[in-house]
């Protein structure tokens, strides 16, 4: 049942954080801006200095290379990076139904990245991440740039993906109502601790 286990994680001035996220489970995390939520996700993705132990399916992170870990424990940052001119150049392969589920048609692969809105970038960055079929999704404000219709569409898509693949999700948002919709339990990061709410 257990997918991700975090033991005694310390980063910056925060911790220790202990957390277990089961298969197909989504947990929500909120907290004031600047408190360290993004740094928490970056630490779990092994992209920021930290101490403590991280386990994926009972295998410790230090038994894999950083790139191997990050392929399985995928981080979606709040602002995505794009390094090629067109959308299609950023994808090796992706299921066409995923594009449709997030409101795109096949033409999107030919679009210039420069013409994308912030919301389009956010949805496409999510699809790009899912091409690796991660077992854990670390989502940093994944719908912050979306209108209400696209927010609901993205929430449904992520729920279907999570349940269909038994992936675990850590979802960060300032929107408590959203976290209650998408997650089985919520935490707040404050006073250098992760507290259940």
Short overview:
This protein is α/β, with parallel strands linked by helices.
**Termini distance?**
23 Å
Structural class: alpha/beta
Instruction: Enumerate how many helices there are, as a single number.
Output: 6
What is the total tally of β strands?
Answer: 10
Radius of gyration: 16 Å
Approximately what portion of the residues adopt beta-strand conformation? 25-35%
- What is the mean pLDDT? 94
Catalogue the unreliable spans: none
The strand line-up of the biggest sheet is 6-7-8-3-9-10
Q: What is the helix fraction of residues, given as a range? A: 25-40%
Q: How is the main sheet built?
A: 6 strands, mixed
- Give helix and strand order, one letter per element, not per position: EEEHEEHEHHEHEHEE
* Shape designation: globular
Description:
The mean pLDDT is 94. It contains six helices and ten strands, in the order βββαββαβααβαβαββ. The two termini are 23 Å apart. With 197 residues, it is α/β, with parallel strands linked by helices. The longest helix is centred in the last third of the chain and has 18 residues.
């Amino acid at each position: 049942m257990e997918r991700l286990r975090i033991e005694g994680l310390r980063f910056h001035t925060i911790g220790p954080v202990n957390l277990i996220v089961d298969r197909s489970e989504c947990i929500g995390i909120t907290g004031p801006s600047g408190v360290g939520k993004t740094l928490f996700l970056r630490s779990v993705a092994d992209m920021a200095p930290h101490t403590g132990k991280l386990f994926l399916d009972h295998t410790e992170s230090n038994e894999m290379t950083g790139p191997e870990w990050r392929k399985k424990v995928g981080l979606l940052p709040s602002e995505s990076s794009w390094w090629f001119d067109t959308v299609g150049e950023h994808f090796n392969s992706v299921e066409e139904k995923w594009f449709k589920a997030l409101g795109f048609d096949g033409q999107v692969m030919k679009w210039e990245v420069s013409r994308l809105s912030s919301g389009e970038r956010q949805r496409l960055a999510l699809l790009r991440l899912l091409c690796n079929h991660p077992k854990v999704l670390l989502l940093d404000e994944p719908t912050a740039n979306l209108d209400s219709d696209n927010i609901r569409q993205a929430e449904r898509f992520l729920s279907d993906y999570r349940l269909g693949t038994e992936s675990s999700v850590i979802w960060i948002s300032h929107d408590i109502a959203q976290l209650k919709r998408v997650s089985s339990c919520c935490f707040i990061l404050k006073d250098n601790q992760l507290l259940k709410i």
